[in-house]
């Protein structure tokens, strides 16, 4: 049994193209019968931006935390435990102003936790989350992949690599706001790539 965590981050609800890619992945995975899925919608979760109170709670020994600090620290701990419990992390990501949604950044801010998912060494950071792979399902109104304007993919690659997830497959659905013909072709190609990835799980 392969355990897959699907993280969605569209603010457009049912109209989000990245959510549509995630749901296509989900339907195919459920048909397989050998895949256990967990869906986390970081928009519905409404994680706040990381602040000093929450960050500081991580630095206090567990037995010395106040009740408020325990509650704050538990957020990161739960999200990290969820990632560790799965074999594959699927990120369904729209592009907003060349970056990732702030809600997804808030999720990453709690996943990248020094001492738990990475540690600093003389040779630089060392990821502590081992044996995982990731799949990026990227939906974009324009065409950016492979150009200097795609700052999103390197950012996600670096964030995942920081915790030790270096195997990343990417599926791009681009040009979705460039006319119906381009949109249909892009979604069909993305669906085909998703089908191949699910079949290989």
From TrEMBL:
UniProt cross-references to InterPro entries, sorted A to Z: Flavodoxin_fold, Flavoprotein-like_sf, FMN-dep_NADH:Q_OxRdtase_AzoR1, NADH:quinone_OxRdtase_FMN_depd
Alphabetized GO MF terms: electron transfer activity; FMN binding; oxidoreductase activity, acting on NAD(P)H as acceptor; oxidoreductase activity, acting on NAD(P)H, quinone or similar compound as acceptor
Gene3D superfamilies linked to this entry: 3.40.50.360
EC top class, as a word: oxidoreductase
UniProt EC number: 1.6.5.-, 1.7.1.17
Cofactor details (free text): Binds 1 FMN per subunit.
Keyword entries, A-Z: Flavoprotein, FMN, NAD, Oxidoreductase
SUPFAM superfamilies for the chain: Flavoproteins (SSF52218)
Domain Flavodoxin-like fold residue range list: 3-196
Cofactor: FMN
Binding-site positions, FMN: 10, 95-98
Catalytically driven reaction(s): 2 a quinone + NADH + H(+) = 2 a 1,4-benzosemiquinone + NAD(+); N,N-dimethyl-1,4-phenylenediamine + anthranilate + 2 NAD(+) = 2-(4-dimethylaminophenyl)diazenylbenzoate + 2 NADH + 2 H(+)
Summary of the function given for this chain in its UniProt record: Quinone reductase that provides resistance to thiol-specific stress caused by electrophilic quinones.
UniProt-listed PANTHER family: FMN-DEPENDENT NADH-AZOREDUCTASE 1 (PTHR43741), FMN-DEPENDENT NADH:QUINONE OXIDOREDUCTASE (PTHR43741:SF2)
Family: Belongs to the azoreductase type 1 family.
Assembly information from the UniProt record: Homodimer.
HAMAP family: Azoreductase_type1
Name of the protein this chain belongs to: FMN dependent NADH:quinone oxidoreductase
């Amino acid at each position: 049994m392969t355990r897959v965590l699907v993280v969605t981050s569209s603010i457009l609800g049912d109209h989000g193209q990245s959510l549509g890619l995630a749901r296509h992945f989900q339907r195919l995975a459920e048909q397989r019968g050998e895949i256990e899925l967990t869906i986390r919608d970081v928009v519905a979760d409404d994680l706040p931006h990381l602040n000093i109170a929450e960050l500081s709670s991580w630095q206090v020994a567990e037995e010395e935390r106040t009740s408020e600090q325990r509650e704050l620290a538990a957020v990161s701990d739960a999200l990290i435990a969820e990632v560790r419990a799965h074999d594959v992390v699927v990120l369904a990501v729209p592009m907003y102003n060349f970056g990732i949604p702030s809600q997804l950044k808030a999720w990453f801010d709690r996943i990248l936790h020094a001492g738990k998912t990475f540690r600093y060494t003389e040779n630089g950071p060392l990821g502590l989350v081992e044996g995982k792979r990731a799949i990026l399902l990227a939906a974009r109104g324009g065409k950016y992949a492979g150009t200097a304007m795609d700052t999103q993919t390197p950012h996600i690659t670096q964030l995942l690599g920081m915790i030790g997830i270096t195997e990343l497959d990417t599926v791009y659905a681009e040009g979705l706001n460039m006319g119906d013909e381009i949109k249909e072709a892009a979604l069909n190609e993305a669906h085909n790539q998703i089908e191949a990835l699910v079949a290989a799980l």
